[in-house]
Sequence to fold (489 residues):
Amino acid sequence: MSEFSERLAKDFQDREYREVYAEDFLNTSLATQISVIREQRGLTQKQLAEKIGTQQAGVSRVENVNYAAWNINTLRKIAYALGARLKVSIETYRTLVEEAEEFCRETLQRPAFEDDPFFRATPTAAGRFEDSPTGWMSRILVPWLEQEIWRTGDLVDWFQGYGLPVTGEEEYPFRWILRSLPLGAERNKYKTTLAARLASLLDERPDVDPPGRRPDDVLYNLFMLCAGLDSPDQLAEPLCAVYERLRKGEIRLNDELRDALRAALARNQIDNRLRPVWERMITHGRDDNLLGNEYEGFAGVRRMPASAQLRGWPDMEAVGCALKKMADHVGQHLDREREFRSLIGQVKELYPADQSMNWDLLAQAHDKQWPDWAWSCVPRLFVWRKPDFFLFAVDPYLFTVQRKAGDRIRLDIRVHPVGGDLSEGAELLRQRMEAALQQSRLPSPKGFLNEVNVALEQLQLETGQRDPFERVHQEVLLEQGFTIETSVG
Fold:
């Protein structure tokens, strides 16, 4: 059993925790799988919306990991539109641990009916074996990837459309290649091999010495295939070399190629060297070299590790800065909370196994001084401490406690309600927390937390509110070395 599974097994001993985790994982996995399979099919949100008879905003909503208002009929329509079926079942918590451990893009993908090898081997009514264009392309691509001797010229031909299935002008070559990669355990092996061969083509500097008869088609499909593979170990350096040539004015790319290069760079980062680029997009709405906008700049930041040694983890300091700037950007929108929750959901979607994400977001909200309405978009219970500051959240309220220095030490408690005005119940809890903090009889974090738990239980009895509040867990603070200053003025 991995360390992650062992930690979940321990945490699941708390019934409330495991039920909340199960609900969050259900919402995250459903939303993420819809997005993953849609991209696997090469569909935009608008195209999927047209297939199920709704607007693009409707698809965007169900692909948000914070969405929870699921409808069986809608999910069935989405599944059928993606060439798959809907399955609803009741499972054990053990399977939840296993699913959380294996949660990644590859495990969420599903072949369409016409691409499923089982059905490709089924005779038609005429007694002949039917095959899909994807299967036809796969029989070309896989042997090529297994060859020890190969040439980049094959990639150049495919990127121009030569040797690919002819099914319509809207099917870009990079999509056929992505679809043709085998699913299952061998996918990563073939994906890594393909990424290494794309790196070889990039090393030949096709942006400087245009290959083929349609060099713009070659570059566009090359960049977009790099974006689709998401293989920074192989592709980060050669893609950054292209960007450096563009930045120095050694090459010229049209707007469509700049967009494609930006997508490839964002999905293949091994460190934070591109942080100034993404921050220019967020701050100014574009970058002189890669164009883009605020949202595409944010997409670059959320996929960016702080260093090569920290790959697989977000640069939370950069994410905090980016979210502060995005809060300023959407602050005047009528649906600012929904937009901001969507941005937070995009970060969490990329790192579903990071159980400290909410903790880190709360810390960044304080450090970067997010506006109060943006604080309210970070959900659930977490605690965080500094020498003169700590905060914790009791869903749906966030409480910050600031110890201010002066002639005498005093404590200032702020409450950030999640939407709307501060309720009478939350104000009552704030007062009781403040009273608990000011009692010299609290010798330890455990004593303080006991007082908070008593206040919560009394509040639930008096107001009838049970679901809105989660119990403050003592071990969370104790494990973090939390201390309480009880000398107050």
Q: What stands out?
A: The chain is about 55% helix and 5% strand. The chain has a mean pLDDT of 77. The first strand starts at residue 383 and ends at 386.
